[in-house]
Amino acid sequence: MTPDASPGIRPAPLLGLLAFATLAMTAISMAVGYAPLALGLAVTDLLAGQKSLPALVLYELRLPRALLGALVGFSLGMAGAAMQGLLRNPLAEPGVIGISSAAAFGAVLVFYSGLSASLALALPLGGIAGALLATVILFILLGRGASTTTLILAGVALNSFAGAATALALNLAPNPYAALEIVFWLMGSLVDRSMNHVALVLPLMLLGWALIVSTAPALDALSLGEDTAASLGFDLAWLRARLIGGAALAVGSAVAVTGAIGFVGLVVPHLLRPLVGHRPGRLLIASGFGGAILVLAADIGVRLMPVRPELKLGVVTALIGAPFLFALVQRLRREAL
Amino acid sequence: MAITASRITVSLGGKPILHDVDAQIRPGEVLGLIGPNGAGKTTLLRVLAALLTPDCGGVDYDGASARALGRAALARRIAFLAQGGEAQGALSVEALVGLGRLPHRRPFAEAGEVDRQAVTRALALCDVTGFAARAVGTLSGGERRRVLLARALAVEASYLLADEPLAGLDPQHQLDTLQLLRRISREGTGVVVVLHDLTLAGRFCDRLLLLDHGRRVADGAPADVLDDDRLAQVFGIHALRSSQAGESFLLPWRTLNNENAP
């Protein structure tokens, strides 16, 4: 570690840069696909309200995939930064409080019941129901004056329960094909999602983001410990409630609509932390954009890779994310010397 | 004008910590909280800072309750320095001290000129201006304690409640810190400080509150509180006494149970 702290980049230029990169990646994501598409023509037709084939491909396939990639990535990145700030632990990730596993289990239950075949949005609705139920259980478990340790423990309990229930569903799957379908869904993907999916999760995510961002000053204070943060005028129970609620809304709906996409929420905050001067509050929005960029890049990657059927998104983000963690281990070891 | 705690009783996890304790913090005065380990000093300090609600009794802040004042107003009135001193290592010293200005800033507002001046003053008071740009994690334990004290001073509150601010400091900075606390008290701040060093407590505090097993044993001028009987009963020690340039002081010399040993 150099003696001088990295002062970071001023917030406005950094966020502007990240927002621009996110927009650019969204545009590239729309330009990439399996069939050639005259993007300019498609956009003109779409804006003119003409239901030409290029316009349909853009609106029904490319646009929802790109938008969901950005929304899901933003949610995972921001929730990861929020959890690392709340737990004051760089190894925390959005799944640490058990919401993602519960959302996955909710979706798996819908798969299992066969509802997903009759109703297109049954799957994400099941996932969201799972996430909300888990949040209610979490709040009941924690009560008002819960400590960080209690929160982690409750998360571990929820995670193992939802994981076991998912495994049970696989165990009892009526046929191998059903089990395979569940396993593939759990790996996470943005394929074949529609604008209905976007409309379903967008309001939930926006609310979740707003709740998380509202905690930014309190998260900065929390880096000094709980008593000091409270002495600076922040209500820790209210802070925890907003963060858990916000993460549950954002991550729960992300998992519900795409399946599990790991490592984004863990890795992105680490990469961006030096750029915001190590302030947990400033990291939130930056990390959201970073997550969006990473998910979009991975999703563009799976379509450009000559592997068919295309790799699952969750697999690719984990493959990209793991080396970053190896590098982090190296850096932490050097700093410890 | 004062913080007045009356009949404070606290149990934590079923274990009684404080019983019927009265305490008062006045502007312009350094109050030393002393007592053996486990006497309830930190718990009393947390109650005074409104970080812990007592089971019985209440605290009055210049005539108002903590609830009536509200969190934000209370945070501007009381600065609290925690015992352990947790800090995120990668943050710069200046940014950390700047967190003390959070109660004065609207949420999401950038630090203004008043905030920057308060930070500069606090850095200078604690003799840490020289490493304002350093990462907190690269400082020694004592340097970090001074930075955290600067963070508390940056609040520029009417009252400063400090839990063992001398822990880990070299002798020079122990004396500097106590002189600093005295100075800000003379400028009108009410200071409460938890101390273990009875020599320094006797020299630098205007008043001492002695706790033992969760009860207030004595509250008054240092010379009255630190008499031989109390030192024997509460701390189990005998102290030497002397004076230097007209200022009397005591020096903990030996434990009494050794003398009684066969």
UniProtKB/TrEMBL annotation, chain A:
Keywords: Cell membrane, Membrane, Transmembrane, Transmembrane helix, Transport. The chain crosses the membrane at residues 66-83, 95-115, 121-143, 150-170, 198-219, 239-272, 284-305, 311-329. Its main location: membrane. It comes from the Bacteria. It is a multi-pass membrane protein. Belongs to the binding-protein-dependent transport system permease family. FecCD subfamily. PANTHER family: ABC TRANSPORTER PERMEASE PROTEIN MJ0876-RELATED, FERRIC ENTEROBACTIN TRANSPORT SYSTEM PERMEASE PROTEIN. This is Iron complex transport system permease protein.
TrEMBL record, chain B:
Transmembrane segments: none annotated. The keyword ATP-binding applies. Gene3D superfamilies: P-loop containing nucleotide triphosphate hydrolases. Residues 3-238 form the ABC transporter domain. InterPro entries: AAA+_ATPase (IPR003593), ABC_transporter-like_ATP-bd (IPR003439), ABC_transporter-like_CS (IPR017871), P-loop_NTPase (IPR027417). SUPFAM superfamilies: P-loop containing nucleoside triphosphate hydrolases. One of its GO terms (molecular function) is ATP binding. Keywords: ATP-binding, Nucleotide-binding, Translocase, Transport. Part of the ABC transporter complex HmuTUV involved in hemin import. Responsible for energy coupling to the transport system. Belongs to the ABC transporter superfamily. This is Iron complex transport system ATP-binding protein. It comes from Bosea robiniae.
